[in-house]
Amino acid sequence: MRNGKKAFTLIELLVVIAIIGLLMSILIPVMGRARGKAKQIACKSNLRQVGVAMTLYSDSARSTYPSWSAWQVWGFYRTPSDGTGVDGEGPAWTELLQSAGLADPDIYACPEYKGDVSISYFEAAYAAWHRHDRHATNVSFIRHASRFVLSGDCTNPLFYAPPFGTNSELNIDDADMDNATFPCLDWYRPAHLEEENNVLFADGHVAAYKDFDANEMTHDTIKTGVDWGEDLD
Q1: Which CA distances in Å does 16 have to 8, 23, 26, 30, 58?
Q2: pLDDT at 187
Q3: For the chain, is the Cβ count within 10 Å smaller at the N or the C terminus?
């Protein structure tokens, strides 16, 4: 007596496998983009928190954002190692925010960055250094807060040690990234999907860009549309 159940033929099995493969080829990229988008949103949230911390700091520091300096090794401040090796004596701007109780170290790194990178955001320093000859930006100098680039993804490999970056002499996590002498926003090395970098502005809003937008961004405290490296006079 034959069993009434019908078994799958080889052709039917191959069709099912092909359908599963097709669905996977569609779903995997979609899931990858969704994960990437979630990381970019988390990065924007981090930058907003950095912006709030900077604003609160300036409120108690005569309207001045945290000061920046040379290379700073994370964790050396207020220890016997402060000022030794490549570490500049004193605190990094990130350590100033943390020591003031305004920021948690977890917000300093974009979740898109892999490896042991603990800090991946920079502080604006170009105009403060080249126009005002200062190591900190005074809020009162900023004429266009909604356009002034205050922070964002630091994607220039010169700020990172290998294997993530190209600075083989550094070999540290720089806790004091700033754009006084080198650009931090490297548009040829975007941090996120759609070839974008996240940018924090002085008014607190965060937006993603594929390149410098002269209509919406400026690295100068006075003039609009000034890209990094352009003349400030």
Answers
A1: 10, 11, 16, 21, 63
A2: 95
A3: N
In 101-133, which positions are buried (b, 16+ CB within 10 angstroms) versus exposed (e)? ebbeeebbbbbbbeeebbbbbbbbbbbbbbbee
Contact 94, 175 (CB under 8 A): yes
> How many folded domains does the chain comprise?
1
Q: Say if residue 93's pLDDT is above 90.
A: yes
Question: What is the domain range of residue 149?
Answer: 33-209
Three-state secondary-structure class, residue 228: coil
Separation of alpha carbons 185 and 190, rounded Å: 8
| pLDDT value at 65 more than 70 | yes
Task: Judge whether 223 lies within some domain.
Answer: no
Domain membership of residue 129 (yes or no) is: yes
Q: What is the pTM of this model?
A: 0.85
DSSP letters spanning 27-88: HHHHHHHHHHHHHHHHHHHHHHHHHHHHHHHHHTTTTBPPP--S--BTT-TTSTTTT-TTPP
| 91 belongs to a structural domain | yes
CA–CA dist 184, 191 (Å, integer) = 12
User: Which of 179, 174, 177, 155 minimizes the C-alpha distance to 74?
Assistant: 174
Evaluate whether residue 98 is within a structural domain.
Answer: yes
Asked if residue 31 has pLDDT above 70, the reply is: no
